[in-house]
Amino acid sequence: MGLTGGTISLVQYMVGGEFPAGDATEWLRKRLLRGRFTPIDDVAAEKAAGWVALEDLQNHAFDDARLFLRHPYVCLAYRRDTRKVPKAIFNARVEQACREWLKQNRQARRIPKDRRNEIRELVHRDLLTKTLPAPALTDFVWNTATGALMVGALAVTELDAIEKLFKHCFEALSLDMIHPFARAQRLVEPKRRAALAQLNKARTDHLLDQIQDNLWLGQEFLLWLLHRSIEGQTDYAIRSVGPAEAGEPFRAHIDSRLVVVGPGAEGGVQKIVFTGPQSRFRELGAALSEGKALTEATLFFERAEEVWRLTLKGDTFAVGSFKTPKVRLDIEESADEADEREAYFYEKMALVEVGLQMLDSLLGEFLEARLSRDWAETSQELKGWARRLAKV
Asked: Are residues 268 and 301 in the same domain?
């Protein structure tokens, strides 16, 4: 999926280790060539995957640095080509080949199993070479100045494949997904890290344990933000590192779509989706009062006349349906298409990073409240508010 398009989905990572100082073009090119995409157009292969240039799926030689390196960003696409032979055509061709074999071998009453398997393999290989590969692209943008890396995908299998390829190409570097608790650790002040560590319910440092055992973090954050949104407390200020200046004001609220999950009938799990403006307060309050948790929500950020929108998954902090203020790409009016695309890329990345900076600022403010001595009282207030909401 695209990171420079109109609507974005992404997962964030942090790269550890030293990136070469100075001109790293050749260093990068050599490592990218280790995992470059190799076409399967002329071979009987079902799958192929690897790096290509961000804006040119045919370029896997990385001969032009501007296609993969826009300082301080490394910008690529992970290309996956797959071929799938239509089952009906395959079966028909196999039966046809079997009939022809029987005609040529009239003494045989039936085709031996090994010969039939050989026919199937030959037919499959022949059809593969005649079937065009279907390409799929996932954008990959790495800010080498900060170590932050974005992958334009949400599917676990896709993320796993990209992680493995990155580690194959950059074996001296580490790549770690920024799960909610890791994000919190990065945002709190050093003097509060010990208090935050005491809230870590994970049994191990394994990624899945860190996510599953700390679901409370995303759930409490979204509930806190929902309460403030409904009560009209929507004014915030930038407090995390990024393109926007510290202290810059912005507004934020939850609206449009909420997902609540919790105990259902007969011991099952019930999922309720609330869509549209915040009008179904009673149903939402009832669900929260019954012990259900807010697990996903659509957030809006406003800075002056600019608006950002994203859907946040509370368990992983993966971001979906992310729309930034519009950026215009006008190649027809540009004297240099490459310059225009590069300018568009930088402007789009700045807006994406500002949106994520606002998200981090919200989480930072929540963590300040969560780690304060008043949180027990605040938690009770939120429960009482949910009960009152159910009676609206």
From this structure: yes
**Residues facing 69 on adjacent strands:** 74
Q: Which residues contact 374 (CB under 8 A, 6 or more apart)?
A: none
- Count the domains in the chain: 3
**Total-model pTM:** 0.90
| Closest residue by Cα to residue 367 from 177, 148, 193, 176 | 193
Q: How far apart are CA 181 and CA 184, in angstroms?
A: 5
Measure the CA–CA gap between 224 and 94, rounded to whole angstroms. 62
The first and second tokens of residue 8, run together, are 């974005």
Q: How far is CA 69 from CA 43, 54, 229, 260, 344, in A?
A: 31, 10, 40, 42, 14
Can you tell me whether residue 72 is helix, strand or coil? coil
Residue 228 lies in a domain: yes
Q: Which domain holds residue 384?
A: 212-389
143 and 221 assigned to the same domain = no
Quick one: CA torsion of 273, 278, 279, 285, rounded to 10 degrees? 70
C-alpha R_g of the chain: 26
Helix (H) or strand (E) holding 331: none
Mean pLDDT of 239-257: 96
Considering the domain boundaries, does residue 201 fall inside one? no
Query: Looking at residue 309, what is its pLDDT?
Result: 98
User: Residue 197 domain-assigned?
Assistant: no
Q: Give pLDDT tens digits for 308-328.
A: 999 999 999 999 999 999 998
